Amino acid sequence: MLSFDGRCYVVNGLGPVTDGAARTSDRVLDWRLILDELARGSAGILPLAQHADLERVGAFGFTIGGFTAAELCRIDARCKASANIHGRFWGPVTDAQTQNKPLIIFRADESDGDVKNVYEELQKDGFWLKVAKTIRWNFNLNGLIFEPEALVPLGAVPPEEQISGVRVSQITRTYLVSFFNKYLKNQDDHLFDGPLPTFPEVKEFLKE
Fold it and tell me: Domain limits of the chain?
C-alpha cells in the first residue's frame, strides 16, 4: 500500500497460498517494482508519481498480505513501517532481529501459533493488538459485507458473540492511521501510550 495526500493505492496478489515464503517473495517483487516505477516517474504511473512521497512509505496487509508488508520493510530501505493484520510469518522475517523497523500486529480472537514469538523478539517500536470476539475474516471486507452467521464456518467465535465488522474496521483504521502518522509523519497522537477505554474490545495491547 502506498499512501499520500490522503489517498491509497493498493497492490493485490492473486492465487492460492501453497508456500508462504515463496508466494510472498513474488508479491514483494511486485511492490518493489511499483516503488521503482514511482521513483522513475515512468509515463504509465506518472499521475501517481507526482503525488508520491517515497521518503514516507508504509505498508500493510491482511493475512499473507500482512506478511508481505513486513517482508517488504525488512528488505527495502524505502519502507519505514509496516502492519500485519492477522497474518503469519515465514522465512527470515521470523527472526525479529532482522525486523528493525516499526511493526504493528493485529490479531483476531484466535490461536496465535508462532506469531506471538515474533512479536516477543522485537527490540523496539513493536505493537501487538488482539481484538476480542473476532475471527480473522472480521478484519477484511467479509466482516462488512456478510452477516456473522455466514462467517461461522470460518472461525470459532459464535455469530451472536462477534462484534460488528463496522466496529472492527473502526478499530483497525484508527490504529493504522495513528501508527503510520507516528512513524511516517512524526505526528504522535499518543494512541500507543497504552490501552484506551475508547476501545474496550482490544483485549491485549502490548508494546516493545
Answer: 56-207
